[in-house]
Amino acid sequence: MEMLRRNLKRQASRSLSAFAVSSPRAVDQENHHPNLAAASPPMSPSKNSPRQGASPRSKPVQRSVSSVAPSKAAAEEEQASAPADDTPAVKVVVRVRPTVCRPVDGKDLFFVRKTPPCSVAVGDRSFVVDGFLDDRASQADAFDMVGVPMIESALAGFNASLVCYGQSGTGKTYTMWGALAAMIDSSSDHADKGIAPRVFQNLFAQIQGRQESSPEKQTSYQCRCSFLEVYNEQINDLLDPSQRNLQIRENAGNGIHVENLTDEYVSTVEDVNQILMKGLSNRKVGTTSMNLKSSRSHVIFTCVIEAWSKGFSSNGFSSSRTSRITFVDLAGPDIDELDGGSKHCTREERHVKKSLSKLGKLVNILSEAQETQKDDSPHKQSCLTHVLKDTFGGNSRVTFLCSISSEHRCRTGTLSTLRFGERAKLMPNKALINEISEDDVNGLSDQIRQLKDELTRTKSGDTGSCKSGYFSGQNARESLHNLRVSLNRSLILPHIEIDSEEEMDVDEEDVHELRDQIRKLHSSSEDAFEDFMDAESGNDTSCSMGENPRTTEDDDQPVIDDYDEGPDMEEHKMSNNTKADQDLVSVRKSFLSIGASPQLSPMQDPTLCSSPKIHNKARKSITSPGLPPSKISVSDCPSDSNAVRSSLQSSKLSPTDSLAASLQRGLHIIEYHQQDPAPRKSFVGLSFDHFALNPRQSVAKVSSSIQASPEGQGAASSALCSSCKKAMDIDGNQPENINTEKQIVIPTGVMSNESANVPLKVCYLMAYFYISSISFRRIKHFLKPGGQHHLNNCFKERD
Ligand SMILES: Nc1ncnc2c1ncn2[C@@H]1O[C@H](COP(=O)(O)OP(=O)(O)OP(=O)(O)O)[C@@H](O)[C@H]1O
Predict the structure, then answer these.
(1) For the structural domain made of 2-441, what CATH number should be given?
(2) Is residue 640 helix, strand or coil?
(3) Whose CA is nearest to atom 8 of ligand 1?
(4) Does the keyword field hold ATP-binding (predicted)?
(5) Where do the structural domains in the chain lie, given as residue ranges?
(6) How far is the CA of 700 from the centre of ligand 1 (A)?
């Protein structure tokens, strides 16, 4: 309770002090045209430097000193650590415009009155404000109440903004800029001079005073200005009228800035006044029922002040502060919708109302939103709200000068303006000192060094264990490559469109079962391998690519390995009947191509694609004789030949090593599938290549063996028994009629002994095993009695 009472007391005294017009003129009004280059800044730009961003080049480290509505604990902590500064981040000052009309209906003109301690009353409605300037207040009073705190804030490193809001004709432009004549005469204390020229007059005087009073500090200042208007939802450069419809950019380094907006460097108040006059003369004006020369665009004048303090460190750098002074003169809505303005003005009026409405909504959102709920989206509703992001709810001390009229006919507009001010006061602006100190620079340098070290470690692979499993990134690539090499045959892995692929769900039970069966087969295959090697003794089992250089006249065509045929087999072929010949040709042209699903994320890798990109339609290109035209082929891509060749050439593993490696890889794949449920949906695009190692053969002499029935006919997987040429279902049965989308032709009887560097059976096994990474269920079925039977038949026939 005690704390609450103290807070309330503090707030009340703060409001009271702000409410009273008590600020003395900070400096004399003489203009000294100071030369600001006491110490050389890091950059010495020319005076006029157009086409630069409107915001500071570097985003300074921001030190929090004052914020609105912080949590109680945070507030206590902040007060303990920060210098005492009770300046609220958002202030609302009301100024009443002198009456210009005589009462026509006898009603009281002066219905707006000040009520203690710090409120403005309109009828029975009361609004809490931070300052009140009645209709007798002068421009100097307005400057004292609003302008002087802005200067103090800016020189302390805060961003400071003044936003004039109110109905058309209530004196916004007059209060902010004053009469043009007063601006031209910058040396005199003209009564009509507005807040902005007074601020700069005072600012430059203060800067000079600081430099002269403490030359040992060697602080250098540099100021640059920009001036823009938001007209019909477009941003135009008031300092360069040819620059229209400029774009707002936002990035971490520069924050919000307007691209290509002219920045002009200034060092005297005359410089600023010239810019102000130039910009204001380019502003769009029109006529409203309240104002003959009414502003029809919102204008934003920004002055960036950069200050460098030299220190005695090695780099001569001590601290740098960058602050912004922003003047926002909003166009006011007309009191009368039917003001007799031209059609063009009506359109302008619509835009003015729309943009002000969005600004009002933004203020509502910001005033109601909790600190944690703030996001960028409300600012992006319009150009105006976006470009004023720092002013509304951001890093800025902002004063809302609500211009009102005491005329009765403006009552609605006056109430609306005061309501706006009341809500704006609740905005959670967080004003920070924008400073970079030497410590900050050192800290950032350390951070950069650490990040560089981390990057270097990451690049060199010294990242400890792989976080995402064995089959991720490079590991996955290497593993798949090893597996492919170990199978001693080329694998073409086409990208196959997902939409037409068959989804395979793999459940854990299947995987466990499969794993057991593979283990069993692992041992049995070793036996089979031994047997096979015995049977193959006497045959040339060299796997050198150079061993069988059956080059063809198609040498310049894409070359892939194929089944080379020995004389025995050739004889065997010749003795077969025509149908068998056709089968042989068909199988001879066969090869294996496995299309890994693009969705197997950790295994999927673009670099695997030494393969053609196969689309659904492209898969039906090459057909084997005797097969329906819809049979699938995926290998007629010339670009693959080199990749295939290199794949084959890199095959240096012995058959047993290959077997062991393949099984090991396969187990990893299975483990991976068990661990990660994501890839359980596999898509199979199967096209069989030859399994055994074979010398190259041009594509012209090989073709596909993956067969697909015409689209739309069933999707059940099956295999064609190459001996009987009947489709078998997955369990090895021969159904009456199987319409398959994908069929696997198992080539038999065509393998040459010379070329079979790896036993055919093992190759078959490995091939299917490899497929297991894609299609567990199929493997599982093949490992079932029926499937095994079929596989064994093939092997027997071969042997
Ligand atoms: N406090 C004041 N003392 C003397 N004249 C004033 C005062 N306020 C406004 N005026 C005069 O009223 C007229 C309209 O003022 P001003 O153009 O500043 O209004 P505004 O709010 O900017 O209107 P709009 O939104 O249409 O641009 C001007 O001629 C201006 O000189």
Answers:
(1) 3.40.850.10
(2) helix
(3) 171
(4) yes
(5) 2-441, 482-798
(6) 88
